[in-house]
């Protein structure tokens, strides 16, 4: 079964290997992405998968190449050991990690249950191919499905127009607040949020769309399984 959709400036084709029950959601699908750029020349396949402990050094290296906000290895381990479902990586055809998302669940009980994107990075050689979008969607889906998050938050530099476009236009985040001097160099940050469920627990926005796609995929998988069983019955009868 295959599921495809358009992202800005490219066509991304996701191929899912599904188990009928899809339980747990994070372990039942391995996403392979075959990307076609604007000039229609196919690139090598990239695998979007859940991160493992062995991926953490490569994730840290990607972070050091891409971002000024860096973390000690123990911080990556903390995320991996506490919220393993929320860490995803993009691995290219030769096994190199070319992107990652590092995320967590906030533990402030005074607020609704929600997740937070700690860090997102894709190597410059692999940008503008929809990898960041797919990493974010995988992590966000786990927040909502596994941890029952109401929404997800993140911070982004006011000057980072490319990242703001990704969050605001593609992933449908909205500005919640502006935090003055949030970054070490004194730059302000947008505090942005993407809502998964309304006050009644009903899926909304981007998450509702993903839920709809998942239901269509489940129905298609059930149809294929039913056809397979009928064919098998005919072969046995024959």
Walkthrough of the structure:
This protein has 238 residues and is an alpha+beta fold. 34% of the residues lie in helices and 28% in strands. The protein has five helices and ten strands. It has a ten-stranded mixed β-sheet, with helices on both faces. Helix 3 (131-146) links the parallel strand 7 (114-122) and strand 8 (151-157). The longest helix has 33 residues, at 205-237. It is globular and about 75 Å long.
% residues in beta strands? 25-35%
Average pLDDT works out at 81
**Overall SS class:** alpha+beta
| SSE string, helices as H and strands as E | EEEEHHEEEHEHEEH
Q: Strand sequence of the main sheet, in spatial order?
A: 1-2-3-4-5-6-7-8-10-9
- The beta-strand count equals 10
In helices, the fraction of residues equals: 25-40%
Q: In DSSP terms, counting alpha (H) and pi (I) runs of 4 or more, how many helices?
A: 5
Rg: 19 Å
Uncertain parts: 1-31, 35-41
Brief descriptors of the model:
globular, disordered N terminus, ten-stranded mixed β-sheet, 238 residues, single chain, alpha+beta
Care to give the gist of this entry?
Helix content is 34%, strand content 28%. By secondary structure, it is α+β, with helices and mostly antiparallel strands.
Structural topology:
Blueprint: E1 2-7, E2 10-16, E3 31-36, E4 46-50, H1 56-66, H2 73-82, E5 88-91, E6 97-105, E7 114-122, H3 131-146, E8 151-157, H4 161-170, E9 174-179, E10 189-195, H5 205-237
Parallel strand pairs: 7-8
Antiparallel strand pairs: 1-2, 2-3, 3-4, 4-5, 5-6, 6-7, 8-10, 9-10
């Amino acid at each position: 079964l295959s599921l495809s959709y358009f992202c800005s400036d490219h066509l991304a084709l996701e191929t899912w290997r599904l188990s009928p029950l899809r339980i747990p959601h994070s372990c039942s699908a391995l996403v392979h992405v075959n990307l076609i750029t604007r000039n229609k020349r196919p690139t090598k396949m990239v695998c979007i998968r859940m991160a493992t402990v062995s991926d953490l050094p490569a994730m840290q290296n990607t972070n050091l190449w891409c971002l000024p906000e860096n973390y000690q290895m123990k911080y990556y381990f903390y995320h991996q050991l506490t919220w393993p479902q929320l860490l995803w990586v993009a691995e290219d055809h030769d096994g190199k990690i070319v992107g990652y998302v590092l995320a967590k669940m906030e533990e402030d009980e005074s607020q609704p249950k929600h997740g937070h994107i700690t860090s997102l990075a894709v190597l410059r050689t692999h940008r503008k191919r929809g990898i960041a979008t797919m990493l974010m969607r995988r992590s966000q889906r786990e927040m909502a499905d596994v941890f029952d998050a109401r929404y997800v938050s993140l911070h982004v530099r006011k000057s980072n127009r490319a990242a703001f476009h990704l969050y605001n236009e593609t992933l449908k985040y909205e500005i919640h607040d502006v935090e003055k001097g949030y970054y070490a160099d004194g730059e302000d940050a947008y505090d942005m949020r993407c809502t998964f469920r309304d006050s009644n627990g009903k899926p909304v926005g981007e998450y509702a769309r993903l839920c709809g796609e998942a239901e269509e995929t489940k129905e298609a998988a059930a149809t294929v399984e039913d056809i397979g069983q009928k064919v098998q019955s005919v072969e046995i009868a024959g």
